[in-house]
Amino acid sequence: MSSASVNAHADAGLRAVAKGAYANGIKLLTQALDTHNAPSWLMERSKAYVRVDRYADALDDAEKALHIALDRGNRDLMADAQLRRAIALYRMQKFADADVCAFWAYRLTEGAKARQDDGQRNMVDENGDYIPRLQEVKAEAEKKYAPKVGKDGLPEGIGRTERSRIESQRNQALTWRIQALTAMDKLPLGHDGRKIHLTEMYPNSSNLPTSNDTVQDAADEAVDPWEQVWTQYETEWHKHKLRHSFYQTDTGLTIDIFVKNLSPEQAVIESYPDAIKIIPAQGAAFGPPGGPIVIFLADRIDPQATKYTVKSMKIEVILKKETPRKWSGLRCRHADIVDNLTIANRAPHPTDFSQCIEALGLEKVSELQLPNYATDPSAWYATLLQKLRSKFSDRDRSTSQPKTEAHNSAQSDISRPRPTSDGVRLVPPGEKKSGGGPAYPTSSKNGPKNWDNMDLDDEDEDTSKEGDVNSFFQQIYKDSDDDTRRAMMKSFVESNGTALSTSWNDASSKTYKTQPPDGAEAKKWE
């Protein structure tokens, strides 16, 4: 059978299973699998076998898929295959075995080493009955992870769209653990469903595909080795992601990295002209494993003016722009791939990842010399980020230039800016430069206009008053607390610059309309 014919049979089989035509799906997938052992096809046929009550065949397919996934070092496939294995064993009423396989799938989503022997299958009493109990698993689920366990005994949120694939796998593993242990608790002591029959985490029977089959299978499916790197990268990114936010004025930026319960000594920041490093210290751990958070900036800053404060819920970093103007964003192109930061839980897209790889001039995965992912995912991920960052620096960034250690405003009184009522250290007023604009909020995409540089027809016009107004609003904005600044920003932007409020109590619930001055008319942008 030609490759095209094999794929056609497989696609038709997958569609048949999805539509509930299980017998036809099994027939078509079997024809494809006779030529090509693809783990995804095996798992779909396993699912179909379960639906037609052929549980032994379902278990056999799940274990074949697991064997191939292990050879490839693909943790996602390993977790999926262990779940299919758990489901087949559950249908066979081998509830203790089902819980062990679901536990192994859960451990893989946690980043455990693929071959690590956790001793789970040896947790039996003197009569050989499996020890773990339902209430223990519920308590662990509630303690360690959302989703919480509902009154029905299942994790809340199952069936909804999950934030990521790894969370979906984890929730499925918890669900099947709870179902298996619930069923096992109803059995009398000594029942076969309470016994462990599994001898290996990864079975290696004569029915499994040969090594040649596996090599050919990998060669056929892994057309682009970067796809596997992306899959593994995405898994680790979700494990280590950190929420952040930022806002900017014409002269500076404020970045918030949301990390809880750090002391001021547990974060150090190094500042460069176009990048900053946020480094864990004194035993702290946050962000990517084994290294700092590195943010490659969209434009240049004055590293000498960088300040930061470690608070109970976040690290606040204040940057001064080298040239006063609005930036298109915080980071340079593709930099989000290497810093593990997210806004509104947005994750990098596969297209962004591939474009980043191309832009950095990488052609082969072997160029990165990555360690084995299945053995230690965290080490693999840390090495990947380190290598990609080095490519950024080699290309056109400046982290190889002399660094400047940022000033921690919580540890020194030298040149400390005036604090607000809540202790926030504000960006100090910068020196006035040609082309600069005011630092108060603006609704203009191009930043605030500098009226000082305009040519005035009336040379007798008194411009000093206008300058005083600019200075007045700058001072109000810079010296205000967070609520006042939010009120000023909201009222100014919503009204298109025709209103300015300093009361957040009023501004928070009010929608501001454009109110042009007498003799002027507000027009919509066309």
From TrEMBL:
Q: Report the source organism.
A: Xylaria arbuscula
- Where does the record place the SGS domain? 439-526
Biased composition annotated in UniProt, kind: Acidic residues: 454-463
Which Pfam families did the record assign? Answer: CS, SGS
Q: What is this protein called?
A: SGS domain-containing protein
Protein family membership: Belongs to the SGT1 family.
Gene3D superfamilies registered for this protein in UniProt: 2.60.40.790, Tetratricopeptide repeat domain
Chain intervals with Polar residues compositional bias = 399-414, 494-514
